[in-house]
């Protein structure tokens, strides 16, 4: 996909952050936007920003954990816009907890949104993307889909899962000869509200964790959006966002499983 003019773009988690920035950037490139999220008011604001750029945009209320609703959403989009060309499965949440602290409720919550939301979105829209004749699916993983980190076991599980699923899908599309490409997107720390909407296990102070995240996050959603679209144009299998994501990507490639010693030592230093 070399340009986005008149392409039908579907974005989940479009009410804020990367989803909103990506929608606005696609609007500037002439795309038609099907935008969804749990908070319809926020998604409606995003759609209005896209319309200010001269794009056709519609907001949809969607719970990505509801498989039936996702398939209904796909049919709504087809009816409103025609077959989807570009699908960005972006909706996601964060959870900080050791495996020992992790409750089954929290584990199921993050898996339902992060992992199953991407699976449902891909499966629901894949027939349309294939039929479009010029399609791309971008599934948002994380830098923690590249290397594991203590207290991120549940989050790692979902993001590693997205990466493996997405890599397999990319290969399948090429083997089948379909006009569809696929990318796994790996953001580092992005200046969004994700940390403030996260959950924390044990006696952890969620607000303190979020404040620390804000201090460390260097990449803006707008910069992330630009990087994602550049990666799609270049047909990249893996799209890295931010210097921190690039460093994390290097660790296991340079040190193999030894990267764990580096991360463990750093985490011990921070705790002490």
What attributes does this structure have?
alpha/beta; Rossmann fold; 272 residues; 9 strands
What topology emerges from the helices and strands here?
Layout: E1 8-11, H1 17-28, E2 32-37, H2 40-52, E3 57-61, H3 67-81, E4 86-89, E5 95-96, H4 104-132, E6 135-140, H5 153-176, E7 180-187, E8 199-200, H6 206-216, H7 221-233, E9 238-241, H8 243-255, H9 259-271
Parallel strand pairs: 1-2, 1-4, 2-3, 4-6, 5-8, 6-7, 7-9
Helix pairs in contact: 1-2, 1-7, 3-4, 4-5
Q: Tally the structural domains.
A: 1
Q: How do the strands of the widest beta sheet line up side by side?
A: 3-2-1-4-6-7-9
Low-pLDDT runs: none
Q: Counting H and I runs of at least 4 residues, what is the number of helices?
A: 9
Polypeptide structure, described:
- By secondary structure, this protein is α/β, with parallel strands linked by helices.
- It has one domain: NAD(P)-binding Rossmann-like Domain (Rossmann fold, 3-Layer(aba) Sandwich), CATH 3.40.50.720.
- It has 9 helices and 9 strands.
- The strands form 2 sheets. It has a 7-stranded parallel beta sheet, with helices on both faces. The chain has a two-stranded parallel ribbon with strand order 5-8.
- Helix 3 packs parallel to helix 4.
- The longest helix has 29 residues.
- The termini are far apart.
- The relative contact order is 0.14.
- The model has no long low-confidence stretch (mean pLDDT 95).
């Amino acid at each position: 996909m070399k340009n986005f003019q008149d392409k039908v773009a579907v974005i989940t988690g479009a009410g804020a952050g990367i989803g909103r920035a990506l929608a606005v950037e696609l609007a500037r490139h002439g795309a038609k936007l099907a935008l969804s999220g749990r908070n319809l008011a926020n998604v409606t604001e995003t759609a209005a920003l896209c319309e200010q750029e001269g794009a056709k945009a519609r907001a949809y209320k969607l719970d990505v954990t509801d498989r039936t609703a996702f398939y209904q959403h796909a049919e709504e989009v087809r009816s409103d816009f025609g077959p989807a060309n570009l699908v960005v499965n972006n909706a996601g949440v964060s959870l900080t907890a050791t495996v020992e602290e992790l409750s089954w409720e929290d584990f199921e919550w993050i898996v339902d949104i992060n992992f199953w939301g991407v699976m449902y979105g891909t499966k629901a829209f894949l027939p349309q993307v294939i039929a479009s004749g010029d399609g791309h699916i971008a599934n948002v993983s994380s830098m923690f889909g590249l290397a594991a980190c203590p207290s991120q076991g549940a989050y790692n599980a979902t993001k590693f899962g997205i990466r493996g699923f997405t890599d397999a899908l990319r290969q399948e599309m090429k083997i089948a000869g379909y006009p569809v490409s696929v990318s796994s997107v790996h953001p580092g720390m992005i200046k969004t509200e994700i940390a403030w909407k996260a959950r924390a296990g044990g006696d952890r102070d969620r607000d303190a964790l979020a404040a620390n995240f804000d201090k460390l996050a260097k990449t803006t959603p707008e910069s992330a959006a630009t990087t994602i679209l550049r990666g799609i144009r270049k047909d990249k299998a893996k799209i890295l966002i931010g210097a921190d994501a690039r460093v994390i990507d290097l660790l296991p490639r340079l040190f193999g499983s030894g990267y764990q010693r580096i991360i463990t030592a750093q985490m011990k230093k921070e705790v002490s």
